[in-house]
Each structure stands twice: as C-alpha cells, then as structure tokens.
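Study this pair:
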Amino acid sequence: MLDWTDRHYRFFARQITRHTWLYTEMVTTGALLYGDVARHLRYHECEHPVALQLGGSEPDELARCARLAEEWGYDEVNLNVGCPSERVQKGAFGACLMAEPQLVADCVKAMRDAVGIDVTVKHRIGIDAVEDYGYVRDFVGHIVEAGCATFIVHARNAILKGLSPKENREIPPLKYDYVYRLKRDFPDVEILLNGGVKSNDEIARHLQHVDGVMVGREAYHNPWLMADWDARFYDDAHTEATRDAVVEAMLPYIEQRLAEPATQLRHVARHILGLYQGLPGARAWRRMLSDAALLKGADAGLLLAARDATRRG
C-alpha cells in the first residue's frame, strides 16, 4: 500500500471504525535512518491501534527503526516480507526475503530484542514457482523459533520477475486453504489472512479459520465497507459513523494540516474519493475532489460543497 495508507488516509479510516488496526505504508529503514523521521512517523493520536510497517533486511538497522517506532508510540512494528516490487527487491527486502528464512529470523530477533512492542511479519505463501504448502509452513516455523507470534499471510505466491506489483495481486491464484492450514499447524500463533477480500461476509467466513483478516485496496476504494466492522467484529454497535459525520470530522483535521508547510487539500482529498461509493451522488463527490482547478488553493469548505453536490445527485 505504498503511497496509499499515509497518515491522512489513516485518520479518515479511523472516523469510520474505532477498533480496526491501521497499518502505515511500508517505510524503508533507509528512509528513517537517513531521512526525515517526522515525515514518515508522525500520526494523529486517534489512529491507535496503529502499526508501523518496515522494509529492510539488515537486523541492526531494523532494530534501530523498531526502537524509533516504539519511541514514537506505535503499537506494533511489522516487517514486510511480501512486497514483490522489483524496486524493493533491488534493496534486498520484501518478498525475496522468503528465500532467506534465517535472515528473516535474525531480523525478527534483533527487533524483538530492541523493543517491547509486538514484532510481526507480513509475507506471501511462496515465491515464483514454489507451490508446495511445506514451503510456507517451514518458513513460518523458522520465524516462530525467533519469537514472532503474529503472521499476516497474503494468500498468493509472489512472482519476483516478469509481473508488476498489480499483476502480482491478480495473477497468482489465491490459496486461502494454505493460510487455514497454517493456523491448524500453528494453533498458538496468531494468523491473519490477506488478499482478495472484498466483502464483510467473506471476512466472517475467513474468521472461522484464522484469527484476523487484513483488507487493503477494497477498504481504500470502498471505505464504507469498514462502517460495519466495529459492530460485527468488535461487538461495539456505536451509531455515530455516518458519511456526513465523517465529512464533519475531516474539516478541522484538514484545516490543521493546511496550516503545515507544503500540505495542500489534494494530499488529503485523494484518499477520501470513495466515501460515497455506490450512492447516486458518488460521481459528483469524486469529480469535485479530484478537480485540479477546484483543489488549487481550496480549503476544507470544498468538502462541504462536494457533500452538498452528492445530495443533488
């Protein structure tokens, strides 16, 4: 979810669901150790529980970044061993690390030794032509020995050469049964399923077999999917989450962000285009909040105008 689940999207998501864990976009160790730490790690207090996802392959560097995550108040630090991007592979991390389980174990141990917050791993079920369930079973078993107790499993292989990241989300077949088997083989480990989930009924079915479900792009493009999560999955039937209430909550947040250097309305607006997805006024909402001429120099009042436009269809 690079360039998607930034702090603006996470604040927006938190206005819809109180309890769902939120994850940052993947941040590389180099970006934290040699770049602008505040730019990558700042977040709004309402985002809790929130996890920092890291990309890297050097145990010492990951440990230093995990300490930063803890110092900044993150609730979890997650190591990405699932991204198939060739750019990421050039940095020797992401899905290619599945071929080096001992290195991943060393990274996890170094991070766990450095912090008191949870250290988790997100990974695929295999890489390239490896189709044997035993591959991912042995990988998870190796990392469990390093002390990791939570795995987020994207139920597809990662094809490291020849497929784009988008194609890697669509072409390799989903094998949910592999994730279910992991939970059976590691009953004391928390197993979360990821990949291709598009409805709350699907989430409920998966939860009969695993401990949790991570939803990425569907929650981004159709964010109102999250409106039922607190009542259905966390036993909290609060009723404040209406679309109008979400718009109202975004107004002071946007004004605060616009007071910061270099932040423009488009930086926030691009993340909320799906709020009225499926409703008659959705097109008007998207059109107004993606119109460069309207966005230029605009303030939070544009959201109210766009909301009014949805009511006219």
User: Anything to note?
Assistant: Strands lie at 22-23, 27-28, 50-55, 76-81, 118-127, 150-158, 190-194, 212-214. The chain has 17 helices and eight strands.
